[in-house]
Write a structure and sequence with these properties.
about 260 residues, alpha/beta, 6-stranded mixed beta sheet, 3-stranded mixed beta sheet, about 50% helix
Amino acid sequence: MAALLQSIDARGVAILTLNRPEKRNALDSELVGLLKDAVEALDARADVRIITIEGAGNYFCAGGDIGSMLRVAQGSSYANEQDALALARMLHVVDAVSKPTIALAKGVVVGGGVGLLACCDIVIAAEDASFSLSEVRLGLLPAIVSPFLIRAIGLRQLRRYALTAERFSAAEAQRLGLVHCVTPKLELGLAQSAIVADLLRGAPGAQADVKSFFSECDGHGVEAELLREAAHRLAARRTSAEAQEGLSAFLEKRPPGWIAAD
């Protein structure tokens, strides 16, 4: 059975499904590698507009595979460090991909699964989902996911949940900023469809520019150099073929060319 399933519909919406339901879709070295490679490949495809990440069965992702981690820890120090680095690289690829990403959270989302959510642009959670950074209860720490979670929910909140390892609800995850939308479990697909429809109305090149420029802004104050770069980005985008089409379409009261005809 493939650990990762992939499909792409006619609109260019790709769905990556973590497919280890018997392990609550926990991340082992194989799944980490497959997810990284799949996201990189999808990012290179012009026909792909959106990437959705979800889990098979009743769970999104139960974090790292405990058995796999124990085996790696009992091996060489080099192999141990390379395994941790592979997880870091996968999360970075998901975080930096130029396409909009959506994650569907359900069940109990733990550790690395919470970190994976923090790397996605939009997170939709089932109202009965719960979340936990459980590493300290295993004698570990959430080192790899921390940079992404600090950005998503802030250091103060992360300290609490990383130190207590307590479970928190979907409503609390939304309050913290980890989750954007909470919906009944049976309506996850409807919520996803609504967001996909909105994303498909945007110009793909502009969306890629949004993601790359916001990454540059992250961690910077409003400085003169950053403002000059912002002006340069906007001026360059105004002259792009996409922007010319979008502006013309607005004035001509017609859909721009990147929106598929009904």
